[in-house]
Amino acid sequence: MVTLPENFENYEEARREGFLKVKALKEKGVPVVGIFCTYTPIELIHAAGAVAVSLCGTSDEPIHYAERHLPKNLCPLIKSSYGFAISEQCPYFYFADLLVGETTCDGKKKMYELLNEIKPIHVMHLPQGQDMDHAFVYWREELLRLKEVLEKTFNVEITEDILREEIKERNRERKILMDFYELGKLNPSPISGCEINETIEALGFQFDRKSQCDFISKRTKELKEKYEKELKSTKSNRPRILITGCPVNGVRNKVLKTIEESGADIVAFENCSGVREKMTLVDETIDPIDALTEKYLNVSCSVMTPNPRRFEALDEMIDEYQIDGVIEVVLQACHTFNVEAYNVKKFVTEKKHKPYLYIETDYSELDMGQMNTRINALLEML
Ligand code: BJ8
Q: Topology of domain 8-158, per CATH?
């Protein structure tokens, strides 16, 4: 069982509590901005006095609503997000004053056009590559455009000083979260991958950033102490797994639990449910807009072409987390991660000499049996 702050018994409880919290914030006049992606420069949203809430759908439930408007063979994350919006089942969507999206994958950017018919959405245009001077200039302009939209929508001024403060605060949060994720570097790990994933997702519904940080710091300290006292001198023969690819919150039970119940430990997440965005801090010493531009342009998602930073991260993480095997999770119809998987497999097996398993799945339970068989076959090799 995952341990969450006092009044939360589990993830569902945390989500329900979150509804009341966001309602209370609205009643106090705090603006709410719905977001969908790791490329969103959250610091600008916080500097506008708003809270940012992730609207990425992680449930199969609303997908049949989405399929009234969207093709069946589309990524489940996109369908779930849209399904929640049109079925009015998501209080977070309901309370959002503004949505912010980015032109990442084709499915998401076209879905934003449909969402715009229900709720105002500002779409940031993301360059397709990172290492060109004009990509920096272009993305910087997009950050300034978002800043203007936030100022106008919420009738505030985002000053340089406020932005610098938010950058510092968000960096502090990133360090605390990285410390938590890096518990997986301990061998044996004092925490399961499912608990890491569930804790981070549930805390996202808290909105009180200070208590989120306090909770994570306390939990990290407890687990480090547990490692020192009970685990340090023990040896585990459970293989250590790194998860890479698409976000995995929507397949926690189907994929992550199956891996751990089959006898392996998930110790690292190279994806947007894990450390992808958190590994690099925002430079606090330069112009804040330049610093945010640089930081977010360098997020290593497969929508970038080429995408060398993802391979640098994999290289580093496979060594630092002492990985025995890599499992790539690709959500159905996610073309960019799907195509990039060819090079990821080559990199993992030929350069790092580690076993690799590719799993393509959706949010349904239809392929549970097949998933079990494939995961067990990989674990037998380790
Ligand atoms: S930065 S991973 S959060 S885009 S899985 S919707 S890419 S078809 S979620 Fe993502 Fe931002 Fe990238 Fe991260 Fe499209 Fe693929 Fe679906 Fe995806």
A: Rossmann fold (3.40.50)
C-beta 259 within 6 A of ligand 1: no
Question: In the structure, what pLDDT confidence band is assigned to residue 207 with cuts at 50, 70 and 90?
Answer: confident
What is the residue-averaged pLDDT of the chain? 94
CB 197 within 8 A of CB 157: no
Task: Identify the pLDDT of residue 251.
Answer: 97
Please give the class, per CATH, of domain 162-381: alpha beta
Nearest-CA residue for ligand 1 atom 12 is 301
Q: Which of 125, 201, 273, 303 gets mutated to test ligand 1 (max ligand atoms within 8 A of its CB)? A: 303
pLDDT above 80 for 298: yes
- Chain region(s) in the chain for CATH 3.40.50.11900: 162-381
Domain with CATH 3.40.50.11890 in the chain: 8-158
- Ligand 1 nearest atom to the CA of residue 36, by list position: 3
Looking at residue 265, its pLDDT comes to 97
Residue nearest to atom 3 of ligand 1 (CA): 37
Lowest mean pLDDT of 2-11, 16-25, 46-55, 130-139, name the range. Answer: 2-11
Q: Please list, residue by residue across 191-208, b when 16 or more beta carbons sit within 10 angstroms of its beta carbon and e when fewer do.
A: bbbbbbbbbbbbbbbbbe
Q: Name the burial class of residue 31, with classes exposed (0-12), middle (13-18) and buried (19+) by CB atoms within 10 angstroms of its CB.
A: buried
Residue 10 clears pLDDT 90, i.e. is over it = no
Q: Is 337 in the pocket of ligand 1 (CB under 6 A)?
A: yes
